[in-house]
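Show me a record, fold above all:
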Amino acid sequence: MSDLLFFPVSMPDEMLHSRVTRYHYLSGNRTAAETYHDLFASKPFSIGGIVPQQIEKLAGRLPGQLESNLAELISNNTTFPAYRPFLGVRQGPEDHSGSHAFDGVVRIPRREESIHGKAKLCPTCVQEDLIDCGSAYWHRSHHIPGVSVCWRHGDSLIHACPKCSHPFYRKLKLLPNLTEPCACGWNPLNAKTTHKGSDLEKKVALFAHDILQRKLPPIGSAVLSSCYVRQCKKRGFVFGNNAGIAKLFDSIQSAY
């Protein structure tokens, strides 16, 4: 029996840190420490990275089975589904007893987690989410490395108050409430678009969002390698009978 009275239902494409922040304001807790104790039985820690640390503690405190709760949180509130297809598959005998939703978590590239120190938002999304969903929240598709614009609106994402430059993300802190103004008076609900991203930036954002929604299963390394080589040759990056790796990387660098 869970001792957690409630946890807000996830909004579409919502990141876990956002869901925890919404719980904080809905619960009426006075301090972040109270919220962390409620949800994780822990002191405040950094809720960041591909799969946030201590997520299994939250899964265990929610009603239902820990494994299904964990699968739901990882699939719907983290960026892990964007990485899962490319992490390979488990070696050894197949195990069909558990969920594949978090298969491959142990192979997450830790280097990405060390640079995940920003909370990004699209002011237009904030305004539309409040009207369409009844709540403004932080989108996980905005937080995939390399994504700099909103996939839906093409607006450049911002990670700090445009008026006072105060960053939205602060270590060991909850995210700002998007319906309340910054200390300087700036409010995302009244903000107007100031800069549009390029067509290339929007294509990257659309791809990132699409792969999150598809929730693709893990793919074997041999299949991935064969696909990469085939597509490389198909696009003209050839060196003799092999794929032209050097030409491919030069092309990627010049394009991005």
About this structure: The beta strands are 238-239, 242-243. DSSP finds ten helices and two strands in the chain. Residues 199-214 form the longest helix (16 residues).
